[in-house]
Amino acid sequence: MEFTFLKRSMKGHSYSFCKICSCDFSVSHGGRNDVRQHEQSAKHKRGLKAQKYAQEMSPFVARNTTEADKVINAEVKMAMLCAKNNVAFTFCDDFNKCVAEIFPDSAIARKYSTGKTKATQLIKGAIAAELDDELAKTCRSQPFSLMCDESNNRKTEKQFVILARLYDEATLQVTTRFMEMPVCNVGNAENLYEKLSEALRKRGIPWENLIAFNSDNASVMKDRHNSVISRLKTSQPHVQDLGCICHLVQLATGCGIKAAQVPVEDILVGIYTHFDKSAKRCEIYKEFVDFTDSDHLKLLRYCSTRWLSLLTCIQRVLNQWDVLQAYFNSHEEVERSAKVRDLASHLRDPVVKTYFMFLSSALKPLSDFNIAFQSEGVQIHRLEEEMCRLIKRILGCLIPARAIVGGPLREVEYGEGHQLADEELFIGADTKAFMKSTALPVSAEKKIFQSVRRFYEAVLQKMFSSFPLDHPLLKDMKVLDPAARLNITPGTVERLGALFPQLHLSEDGLREELIDYQVTDSKQLPQEDKIDRFWGLVGKDVRFSELPRLMKALLCIPHSNASSERVFSMRNQDDQQTLSHSARLLHRLLDGDSKAWSSPQATGTDEHAFIQSVKFDY
Questions:
Q1: Could you tell me the pTM of the whole model?
Q2: Buried b (16+ CB within 10 A) or exposed e, 474-496
Q3: 3-state DSSP call for residue 402?
């Protein structure tokens, strides 16, 4: 920084605070010149001279940290460690008994006394409350976005997770914070909106600070007239909604799979469920793996709501194809069971295997895109470019490249009569080699290429109809990229400022700061690769106030809803760990272990309720 003695003034953006003189002074007239004039003033020079000969106070101040404080610090850190790593608080009971023995020479360890109950209260009653207050305070004072999602748990109460995405001034980066996860068993638009409204109302967060909303693309969330977003716009008319691009890509993939008319999903689910919960079948399958000299790999469960599961499941089945074919063809139930007979028939069919091999190649660009935009980092400035790039990659598999370039993307014709010949369609090198080695009949090859064309056409149709290609916000988001600063027009920031009137930005101030930002030598700007940190450092320069405010607001706009999905993934992992512990404890009870209920893990659990819950889960 050029002026290290300055920091932001509490009086507003037209003032700066001098740490040497401990005073505010105006920079509204000359900006940098005002700072230089203050730097040359007699008062500032006297302050510098006095600071030069002043001694630091730290040697004269002894920090009074008692042993009790150190014990409390250890207990809090242990509780936070358990919460951060999803470790059950019952672990604290055992650790509490062992810590003094592990560290016999430590006075802190001897006085450490945090079990399950105390650790729970430290997290829920103290730390969580403090973090929630901090989140509420931040959202009350600066722009933020909301992200939410519903659980699809059919056994227990349905939960509705609410997250806030905001700019953290302390770390100079965009972060996603957990706000609340209320129960909402009747997930209609009215109830979901009320849960959102209540979460903000009880924290005193104004709707005015909300700039964007993101969720999955269900009609209850996105419908034009009766949805959560339609109700949100009554409270905040200027809220931006881009939808979850990862969910849209998954929907496009699903449309392609259905249009191809090959039972890919049925085959994947059928194979997994055949072996699931059957140790006998798994053991027989291992014998076939050894006989065919194949890799011992676990068969994966396909779940249509898991964005990345389709490609990995297809690749795993292809890897085990010969083993699966041998197993099902020789299965004792192949004549009696329709499911086994159908699976054996599909695995024998070279057309089905060819289509699986085609999908293992065709799904890679879709999967790569999905992986990139599940990132927690800032990706919003790349969204429009990457959406267009993905569509062009899929178009290039179906039509000549010359038909794609040179005109608007939406006007590209990809229907019948504009497509490549069969031998020029992209199906993957391995797929081509397999088709040549198998010597398929002409009718079979024709059927395969028809499925390939239907797949590409359906994917493209869904992308063009659902992707936010024409959203006015995305077209100007390149403004965030420092590499594109010389290509930014004044109209760009004016349009962006108009989309967010709740920020109360000065149009003239934005224009002046944009010019200053563009003409500043790149060496004088922050040398930072991360865009959120770059704009945080720019905001510390006294020349810029309005422009960083706008940029930080744009940085908070979510590019996908992956963060909300991760909350439920973490929750499911905890449930699975609890179930595993419950199963172990039940086995001990059935074996006659009378001490099971007196163990730390079982303390406080009602026996009848516990056994009923285990029966229910199984």
A1: 0.77
A2: bebbbbbebeebeebeeebbeeb
A3: helix
